[in-house]
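Following up on my earlier thread - several people asked me to post the actual chain instead of describing it. Fair enough. Here it is, all 123 residues.
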Amino acid sequence: MSDNKQVALKFHKEIFQDHVFDNLDDYLHDKFVSHSIFDPITDKPFFINCFKGFFNENPEFKSEVKRVIVDGDYVVLHNHNAFSSQHNGFVAVDIFRFRDGKIEEHWDIVQEIPETSKVSNVF
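Reply from S.P.:
Thanks for posting it. Predicted structure:
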């Protein structure tokens, strides 16, 4: 398994499954930026504030990685995210670009899973 893939999976587990922020320096490059259309993030303190607030408002939030794609300095995670067990959730694709073994850039694509769909399994 590539080192970048392991870093991306550990980062995802600690932040989006365990809601732990203690090891961000192990994962995020000093020049980290997130190009998310929801909330662009330009530094680690802002990242922490955004997600701590999000998890305080959504304590049941869960995220499960369904597949991982690695291409050079890029790692892509295809996730099933949900606000609670009663919520269908949404499909999220996180794209990470690595530099020096840490995440320097991030993009995301999010699509809500509707109550009814012609597709039986989006994963």
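The mean pLDDT is 92. That should answer part of your original question.
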